[in-house]
Amino acid sequence: MIYIKGEAAFSAGAVVFDTEGKQVLSILDEQNGRVSFPKGGIEMGESIEDGACREVEEETGVICKLWSPTPIAIEVRNQRSDGRSKVVHWFGATFAATGQQKLEDYEQLVPKWFNIEDIVDNLAYDDDKHLFNSCLSYFNTHIKQG
């Protein structure tokens, strides 16, 4: 159980591997040049799992299949300007199909596949590097063995 004092904003996203586990999906934010993983806010009445998949498709145009209904990680960020904590549920996932990218007017996101050997050096945030390593370990232990 997670206890968060006050109000919180809930988000979800996924680290998406290709079907062979050789590449991982990311987004390049053209406004600031940072590479990260797709994520976004959960909509009213939406499950965290559905929100993660929807955000991946909206930001990248990729339809993914989550490995498990249980998140790989839950990250609490205390940096919102409105004083609320932001709780991000991160899932591991595999590419399932090509969908349609549906960005908000202010978003300038470019989907980018990286070889798994190269992604860590390109990620902008240390938390994303740790998240990727956790997903890679889970993939190698539970998914690749299949």
Automatic annotation (TrEMBL):
One Pfam match, given by its short name, reads NUDIX
- Residue spans crossing the bilayer: none
Q: Which PANTHER family match?
A: ADP-RIBOSE PYROPHOSPHATASE, DIHYDRONEOPTERIN TRIPHOSPHATE DIPHOSPHATASE
Start and end residues of each Nudix hydrolase domain:
7-136
Entry keyword Hydrolase:
yes
Q: What is this protein called?
A: Nudix hydrolase domain-containing protein
Q: Which UniProt keywords are listed?
A: Hydrolase
Q: Name one GO molecular function term.
A: hydrolase activity
The keyword Isomerase appears for this protein: no
The entry sums up its family as follows: Belongs to the Nudix hydrolase family.
